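Problem 3 from the worked examples.
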Amino acid sequence: MANTRSIIDDPFLSKSKGRVRLGDSVTLSLTFKIKGSIRESFTPKNWERAYNKHDNILRMTIWVTLKSGRNTIVALKFVRKAVLFWTRNPKIPYRIWASVIKDDMPFHTLSVEEIQSMLFDVNKIIELKGDEIKLGNRKLFAEIKVSWGTHQYTQSTIISNKSNSVEIEFTE
């Protein structure tokens, strides 16, 4: 196992517009990457070791809490999974391969980098309605927490970080 340090890298929150009227909505986009030992150790060599010990699913739970000051505006929870499987595909030079389940959809690819990107790079869209938030200028930011369990290639870990703030004016 590599060192046990993983981080949520460069969390960035962006807005579709700066002024929202009642009945209108605004789209926020949150992007971040999970980097460090979990990403570095999620490789075909470690997949094979884990699969041979019946450790064939990596499940990451991601919590995103959109806040204005101390007030929670939206709380989201979603899961990303990687499922290890035995393959005979002649295009894959390894016996054990991974598919990623993202937003309840399975994704299969022939590249380790694409698998890591689908699993560890997050781009979440958040829709806010103008009448869900008190009127006035609001500074919104996201608190992010990610966790996963113990596997052959990593220890159980919880990491967290905060995004930048975006200012949005909510008017009548």
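Problem 4, a separate protein:
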Amino acid sequence: MTEPPRDDEAPAPQPHRPRPHPPEPSVQHEDHPARTSSATVAAIVAGAVLLLLGVLVVVLAMTLGPTVLDRAAVERDVAAQFEELEGVAIDLNCPDEMRVESGAEYTCTGRTAEGEEVTIAIAITDPPDDAEYTWTEVRGRR
């Protein structure tokens, strides 16, 4: 028989026994079984379809919209040709939208480096594929 420990002695060490973990609670969503993930997937698909349709509309509008001359290019090119022919630089301003349509004509205005006002007529000559044009001075410089 073993004697009970005395007050001045430390108790004998006990073997370590790990405590069992409580069981994990089972997660069940009976109120929203697989519907939550299906609804999320449906919303994502619907959003992607709407985004794709939006992009398609923009691309079609840009592709099927009217062909227009590049305003900056016309101003730059005509001004360079004018300076070469007349020997004086010109600051030219053309309409914002010059559609490339058969027989279309546009008027650009400008001022030479000498301060003289100039009017230039732009005429579309080969629509719509090549977008070629000619220009003429409408009124002579004063």
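Solution to problem 4. Residues 36-65 form one domain. The chain is about 30% helix and 25% strand.
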